[in-house]
UniProtKB/TrEMBL annotation:
<feature type="domain" description="CN hydrolase">
    <location>
        <begin position="1"/>
        <end position="248"/>
    </location>
</feature>
<dbReference type="Pfam" id="PF00795">
    <property type="entry name" value="CN_hydrolase"/>
</dbReference>
<dbReference type="InterPro" id="IPR001110">
    <property type="entry name" value="UPF0012_CS"/>
</dbReference>
<dbReference type="InterPro" id="IPR036526">
    <property type="entry name" value="C-N_Hydrolase_sf"/>
</dbReference>
<dbReference type="GO" id="GO:0016787">
    <property type="term" value="F:hydrolase activity"/>
</dbReference>
<comment type="similarity">
    <text>Belongs to the carbon-nitrogen hydrolase superfamily. NIT1/NIT2 family.</text>
</comment>
<protein>
    <submittedName>
        <fullName>Putative amidohydrolase</fullName>
    </submittedName>
</protein>
<keyword id="KW-0378">Hydrolase</keyword>
<dbReference type="InterPro" id="IPR003010">
    <property type="entry name" value="C-N_Hydrolase"/>
</dbReference>
Amino acid sequence: MQVALVQLSATSDPDDNRKQVDEVLGRLDGSDRLDLVVLPEASMRDFGDPDDDLAADAETLDGPFVTLLAQHAQRLDATVVAGTFERPTDGTGAAESDRSLPYNTLVALGPDGSLRAAYRKIHLYDSFGYLESERLSAGAVSPVVVDVAGRRVGLMTCYDLRFPEMSRMLVDAGADVLCVPAAWVRGPLKEDHWETLLRARAIENTVDVIAADQCGRYVGRTMAVDPLGVVVASAGEAPGVVRASLTTDRLTLARRTNPSLANRRITSGSTGGAPA
């Protein structure tokens, strides 16, 4: 599977961000034969200051940002994943009251431009002195996995990375690639946490991990990690695009060498006690 991971620095202006995303995706060529293009969390609009009203800029899943992604997905004949802030809708698809907190949502647009999946971030970033839950709603606890080029790609967002049960839930749902768009804030040891956790999720689950992070006020270091924990491609702190080729041969080797998934004795359905 051929992957392009986009590292960018979003602003608080959705119009500016659409232009930026349009330009960076426009530089990708269909002749590259990409299967998957991943942009960071909050590519539609940066989180901004803690008192910024994210609800005012949130869009529905047929809004301008997702429409732009769909156009590029069709042009590239690839699946495109990116982070947006989603305005909640009622059962008819109409927007709910402006008082409703939006979702921090990953959208996956298929090569035909259709919306293949929407993952609403489960673990909101109420940590390191920040309260994401004051500005956004948490999604339902349910795995979201998308088929891409014969692989099963599980979606998770930023802070989800700190919860190993999240990645294991996705793997149990069939994922053999974990896709992690993020806006991983800079801070003491945060860069180290980022790479360590990405590699840990790859090693413990014997899966590929692909992570597209924002830069600027965030750590950057977008990277692809193989199922044995090797960083096979990475970026620094500047905007750019990272390419990676994910092979099932490497996945098979990792699971033959380290059959930890097959050997585990504790699962989500375990009840304890002696076997019958």
